[in-house]
Give the backbone structure.
Amino acid sequence: MIAAENLCLRQGERELIRDLNFRVAAGEVWLVLGENGCGKSTLLSALAGWLPPDEGRVVLGERAIQGVPPQQRALTMAWQVQHDVCPFPMSVIEKILTGRHPHLSRWAWEGETDVAIAQQQLARVDLAGLSARDLATLSGGERRRVALATALTQQAPLLLLDEPLSQLDLRHQQQALQVLREEQQQGRAVVMVTHDPNHAHLLATHALLLFGDGRWLAGRVDEVLTAETLSALDRYPVRALEDEGLTWFGST
């Protein structure tokens, strides 16, 4: 669905990612892990076509992403950014309905079907009763769930999610993971930035580790997520614990 080919990303003189090559297929869920400032959000910006790479290219389908028209790009991928800023008063349902804009013609308004889809996604993230609330009155965790519901309302086959579980309590983290699992089962692909490798258990098929100095490691979860690789990634000792056939990672 999307691929990075010899992708290089820099910030000033600092090289974040060097010659990255990886491909995301339908039904795959990729976790992107690394320390703060290692380039995770920068990578998602490049994959979304927002940030031109310093070298290499991003391919969406069979075309370089810069050659894909904006509306077609929006129909193909939904991008949840890390910080969703809304400077103007807006209700929750108005925000969610922005996810339907790629499906509308230039002067069209949202119809009953669009509203129904938006309400359905609100219910999936446990916000059904807050559709009329102003976004500014919500907690940080509630706003993150609104952002996730907006991305889901777009109904794109590819989801680029930048820390969708940040600020969520444990119950809502597990609920959001289950929602993403359902999306995966419908054939959607997910690239998700997270700081917790244990999120892999419910849905991840692959992982991409970014070391922040150009180096990276990509592959299947069972090959990439080990105590050794995570210790090197976090520059802190990580232990692997076995429980009922699952491997969990924690600090020593």
